[in-house]
Amino acid sequence: MPFNLLLNNVSRYIHLTDAEKEIFISLLQEKQLKRKQFFLNDGEICKYSAFVTSGCLRGFTVDKNGIEHVLSFAPPDWWMADMYSLISKKPGTLNIEALEDTDIILLSKTNQEKLYLEIPKFERFFRILIENSLVANQQRIVDNLSLTAEERYNIFCKRYPTLINHLPQKQIASYIGVTPEFFSRMRNKH
């Protein structure tokens, strides 16, 4: 069943009855993305949270010089959305792209609000996700300001252990904030 991974993810924080699981599943949509297909483009309003069941998404921005800056990856069992856009209902700045053929489960913002009314414990679930995301993003900012590239790479390896040998080096370099050339020299030293 494609929803098992998602139900396990939810069960880490809240317990659902069988009836609640059915309501939850009825509010979800499955979607397949091909490699390099975009789930969201900057300038669009993000209307869904995406839960990855297979494959991998990356969230990135592009600066005025055309340089990509990777903010996050979502391997299986991770959620991704442009949170600014999803919450504010304004056009976002994040591009979300499939790095490979990727299966996702979508929860629309509208259905998320329905969930809060029908199964209030989902407010707790999403509050915990958002708190964890806020803490991780704050820590990432502090790390980017105070740690060396090597230290940031070590943190990346701990955060995304399944992606270390799975992603193109230029994606990892962008995430830790260095050029692919610098990243290659840094890795070759070890």
UniProtKB/TrEMBL annotation:
CDD domains per the UniProt record, alphabetical: CAP_ED (cd00038)
Domain Cyclic nucleotide-binding: 31-115
Cross-referenced InterPro entries: cNMP-bd_dom (IPR000595), cNMP-bd_dom_sf (IPR018490), RmlC-like_jellyroll (IPR014710)
Pfam families hit by this protein: cNMP_binding
Species assigned in the record: Mucilaginibacter frigoritolerans
Name this protein carries in UniProt: CRP-like cAMP-binding protein
Gene3D superfamilies documented for this protein: Jelly Rolls
